[in-house]
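Record format v2
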Amino acid sequence: MEKRTEIGEIGGEFGLINRIASKVQIYHPETLTGIGDDAAVLAENQELTVVTTDLLLEGIHFDLSYTPIRHLGYKAVAINISDIAAMNAIPKQITVSVALSNRFSVEAIDDLYEGIRAACENYQVDLVGGDTSASRSGLVISITAIGSVSKDKIVRRNTAQKGDIICSTGDLGGAFIGLQHLEREKSVFLANPDMQPQLEGKDYVVSRQLRPEARMDVIHDLRAAGVVPTSMIDISDGLAPELIHICKDSGVGAVIFEDKMPIHDQTFLAATELNFSPMTAALNGGEDYELLFTVKQEDYDKVKNISDLNFIGYIDAEVGKVRMKMKSETVVDITAPGL
Amino acid sequence: MEKRTEIGEIGGEFGLINRIASKVQIYHPETLTGIGDDAAVLAENQELTVVTTDLLLEGIHFDLSYTPIRHLGYKAVAINISDIAAMNAIPKQITVSVALSNRFSVEAIDDLYEGIRAACENYQVDLVGGDTSASRSGLVISITAIGSVSKDKIVRRNTAQKGDIICSTGDLGGAFIGLQHLEREKSVFLANPDMQPQLEGKDYVVSRQLRPEARMDVIHDLRAAGVVPTSMIDISDGLAPELIHICKDSGVGAVIFEDKMPIHDQTFLAATELNFSPMTAALNGGEDYELLFTVKQEDYDKVKNISDLNFIGYIDAEVGKVRMKMKSETVVDITAPGL
C-alpha cells in the first residue's frame, strides 16, 4: 500500500507552502523574489510583459478518475504557456494557486507539483508565487503565466492580412477523440467494475488529451527563421472557432483545404470507431493546444522547412467568412457554435 | 421581484466575457492590451514588476448568506492590492477568473463585477484578463495583481533592523470580531428563521469584515514623506503572525506595548459582548488588511504626522522573539499558532 501522509502531519498550510517552495527551481536571473514574500518580484527588462491566467475545476475541466494527477499538473501549466506562445512571447514566470479537500494526501499533492515542476523545467519558467487553501469540493487549480516579447515581435490575433498563408502546428482532433475514449471506458467501468479499460491502440489520442504540449518549439523555430507571423492564436477550442476569431478580429476571411487538414492516423481510426467524424473533431474538438498562425507569402521559403508545420489555406477578403474547399472541389462554410 | 437573466440568455461564456469586457476601464497608458487576446500586454517601464495572487472559494473564504456579492468583488480585489501595497509598490493591473454555478443570475454576476470595478477605480488598476467557467459547487474567484516599484523603493519583509520603530496602520481585530457577530446571527437565523439579525452597533466591525480597504493611502503618504520603510507586510492573519514573519525573516526580535495596540472602541465592546478578548482578536484575528512596517528611528519625524499610523513598539536583537510589555510592566511572549 502506498504511504499516505495527512497535510496536518506536515504542519498544515505553512508546511505545505514550505514543502512546495523548497522544491522550486529558479531559471531566470530577472526573477528576483519568488515564493516567500507578499508578491513575486520580477526585474525590469526592455521587453513587453504578457500575462495570462486559467482556472481549472475538478468535475468541470478534468476528471481524476482517469487523469493521473501528475499529468494534470503538467497540463495546467502547458495550457497557460500555450497562451504565452500564441503572443510569440517567451514564458518567464508562473503563479500557481491550488485548493484541495482532505481527500488529497500529501503524496497526491507532491505528484501534482511534480507535474507542475516538470512543465516548469521543460518550458523554462519560474514558479514565483501562489496560494494554497482548503476546498469543500475537489481540486481547484488557478495558474497565471507571465512572459515577455519585444515590441517588434509581438503577434496579436487581429492583424491577419489578405493573401497570408494559414499555418497550423502538429495535428488536430486527437485530444477530443482521446477524451471520448476515456469517457467511454469510464462509463463501461461504472456499469461493470470488473471490466478492464480497453485503450489499446489509443495511446496517442489519450496522451493528446492527458498531456498536451505548448508549442514553444515552433516559437523558437520561427525566431530562428527570422519570421514574425502576421497573426496567431492557440487552438484550445478547435480550429474552426480559432480561425473565425482571427478572421473576425482582423476583418478578413479564410479558405482552408480539406486535404491539408492535419489529422493523425490514430485520431482517424479512433474517431471512426466511435462513429465520430475526424474532421469535426479537428474543427470543433478543442484541447489540442497547437498554434494557428498566418505568415506573409514572401516568408514561405523561410518557414517551409520548420518541422511539424502544416500550410492549410490562405486569408482572403470576405470578412468573417471561413470556408473549406473539399477534395470534391465543392466549398462549405465553416461555423463554430457560440460564435 | 428582481429581474433574473440566465447566463444562456446572454450568449453563454462568450456573452459573459463580452459583457465583462465592455464595462472594463483602462487607467494606465502602459496597458496596451487587456481582455480580448490570449494574454494581456503590459508595456515595459523602468521599474520592477511585482505580482501576487489569491484564490477564494465559497464555503471556505466567504459565506454568501451574509456577504453582499458586490462587497465580495471589492474585497477580492482589495486583498490582492494589499499584498502589492506591502511591497511598497503601486498596483497597475489585475486578472480576475471566476467559476460559478447556474445558481447565479446575470444580475448577481453583474453585482460581483460592479464591486470589482469599484475597487479597480478606487485603486486605479486595470482589469486586463481572466477566465470564466462553470462550477459545480459555488463561486470560485481567483485574482492576480501586478504592480511596479523602483528598485530603491521596494520593501521586503526580511530587512527589519535592530532599533527600528514598528508601525501599524488603522486599527486591528475588528474584521475578526465582525465575522464572529455575522456567524452568530447566522446561527440564530438558522435555528429560528423568524429572528431578525441583531447587528445594531456592529456597523463598524461588520464593515471591517465585509469591505476592507487596502492601505494604498499610507503607501502614497510614505512616498510624499520621502520615507522607505525598512520592512513591511500586510496584516492578513493578525498582528502576531505577521510580526513573527518579519522578525524570523529579518533575524531580529520585537517588543510591542499593550497600551499602544490600536483597537477600535466598537471592536472592544463587540468583542466583550462575545466574551472574546479584544487583544487576542487584534493579535491573531486576521483579515484586517492593515499594513505593518518598520522605519528607522531617524525617519520618525517624517512619518509622525501621517494620519492613521500607530507606533506600537521597536525591533530588538532577540532573534525570532516577539514580546509584549503590558501596562502592568510585566512582559509576555507573543506566539502564533502554526508558526
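The CA atoms of residues 160 and 230 of chain B lie 5 Å apart.
Chain B has two domains: 7-149, 165-333.
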